[in-house]
Amino acid sequence: MQTILEPSAVQRLCESFRSGGKTIGFVPTMGFLHEGHLSLMRTARAESAVLVVSIFVNPTQFGQGEDFDSYPRDLRGDLIQIERVGGDLVFTPSVGVMYPEGFCSFVEVTELTDVLCGASRPGHFRGVATVVTKLFNLIRPHRAYFGQKDYQQSVVIRRLVADLNFDLKVVVLPTIREPDGLAMSSRNARLTPEQRRAALVLYRSLRHSEERVREGERNAKAICDEMRGMIEAEPLARIDYVALCDPETLKPIDWIEGCTLAALAVRFGSTRLIDNILISLP
Ligand code: PAF
User: Fold this and answer.
1) Which of 41, 43, 118, 199 is the most buried (most CB within 10 A)?
2) What does pLDDT average to over the chain?
3) How far apart are the C-alpha atoms of 132 and 130, rounded to whole Å?
4) Do the Cβ atoms of 244 and 223 come closer than 8 Å?
5) Where in the chain is the domain with CATH 3.30.1300.10?
6) From the candidates 34, 37, 124, 142, which is the catalytic residue?
7) What is the CATH superfamily name and number for domain 186-276?
8) Paired residues of 143 in beta bridges
9) How far is the CA of 138 from the centre of ligand 1 (A)?
10) Distance from the CA of 262 to the center of ligand 1, in angstroms?
11) CA of 153 to the centre of ligand 1 (A)
12) What's CA 197's distance to the chain center, in Å?
């Protein structure tokens, strides 16, 4: 397994894989890897000749006062895990090489980013779209793998890939959960034991929404109110948003008529967690 820090070197090597007829599976990450990342890597490994992983905590997707500085990092541990799943190449650039002096080009996906996390984290998806565009241009993967936990991100990236004619397939794989239901996230490491216990309300409220749809409830506001009630009953939780939306446009819905995205973002202390499920009609 090779670890490369220089964009030009990763570009040259990936170009040689491509011209040698090898398919490239790419898993972009911000490191501090967990089972969610590893499941993406295992699938990418099985579906591609070459597995490329990037580890880069991207400053442009963090707003002022967000957790860029305190975002958990463990490069050494991450490299061991990537080696174990059979990674071929790990790209670990510095902020300075990704955003050198004078950098002023950004990629913006509109509309899809006005809602949900985009509404509460202005500029976040501009940073994501920009870094993902740079990574796609450097690595030119045949397939790129993302987790459903970041549902809005996956919709934004699919749109970006279609709109800017990237020649690659976006693969979105299911959220991996802890045995008690908490969605795996690098940020879980920052929860206190009390917050970790309180955070179980997220998946519980999502499952409740699914249950209510199964029982025949179709009024989205009524279901959101019940979810909010459950979360607000947890003293350590502070709701950012709870929404039932169209899974393609991400627009909030009033009435449940087809497949629906139930999504939420909730803070526990300074840690903001997101989760979602797709609910299909019975
Ligand atoms: O999902 C993430 O970890 C990040 O948003 C990504 C896609 C690696 C871009 O920095």
Assistant:
1) 199
2) 98
3) 6
4) yes
5) 186-276
6) 37
7) Pantoate-beta-alanine ligase, C-terminal domain (3.30.1300.10)
8) 25, 169
9) 16
10) 21
11) 8
12) 22
DSSP 166: -
What residue ranges of the chain are covered by domains with CATH 3.40.50.620? 2-173
Looking at ligand 1, which residue's alpha carbon is closest to its atom 6?
Answer: 29
278-to-7, 218, 247 alpha-carbon distances in Å: 37, 15, 8
- Asked whether the whole model's pTM tops 0.90, one would answer yes
State the closest ligand 1 atom to the C-alpha of 29, by its place in the atom list counted from 1.
Answer: 8
Tell me which architecture the domain covering 2-173 has in CATH: 3-Layer(aba) Sandwich (3.40)
Residue 232, token pair as written in the block: 């607000």
Which residue out of 40, 109, 153 has the highest number of ligand 1 atoms within 8 Å of its CB and is therefore the one to mutate?
153
For ligand 1, mutation pick of 62, 107, 132, 138 (most atoms within 8 Å of CB): 132
Is 34 tagged catalytic? no
Tokens of residue 42, six digits: 């295992």
CB atoms within 10 A of CB 216: 7
H or E stretch including 171?
strand 169-173
